[in-house]
Amino acid sequence: LSAMHNHAQMLGLMKRYSEAQTLYTQTLEIKRRTLGAEHPFTLNTRHNLANILLRLGKAREAEAINRDVLTIRRRVIGPHHPSTLKTQANLGRTLIRQRRLDEAETELQAAWTAQVAHRGESHSDTLATKRTLDHCLALSARQSRTRFVGIRKTSKPNQKNPEKQIANQKTASHP
Fold this sequence. Notes:
Blueprint: H1 2-13, H2 17-34, H3 40-55, H4 59-76, H5 82-97, H6 101-119, H7 124-155, H8 162-173
Helix pairs in contact: 1-2, 2-3, 3-4, 3-5, 4-5, 5-6, 5-7, 6-7
């Protein structure tokens, strides 16, 4: 089982995502039968399968798996266990992919805060989550600016740009 899991992982690293998905799915079925659905090794395979599904553009499937694995890990190994926090961060990435930025920010902020408290600011997992959180915040800010510009353009289409008018008035009043 470990060899199958590791082989699927290598396929993913080589960007052979469809093959990795197939092998992870086969590995998962065997692990469920032999180890049980809540065994840490089974959950690791599901966690990795969700990552592959996200790479394949199957964000909704990845989200469902991440949410289920997160729920089980919180209950079985605790909310601050490194594996739980990695899954929470993966859920955040999955939500970003779906442009559900507020939800993503909530998950990523919670995961990052717990990682800082339990692993430190310089741990590689903490840094990876922070990088994803920063990306989420940048996308959110860009989305907000786009929305604001769209509102301004559609709400008063016949009116001149008020910022430009003010700037022009200031320039005109100074010799």
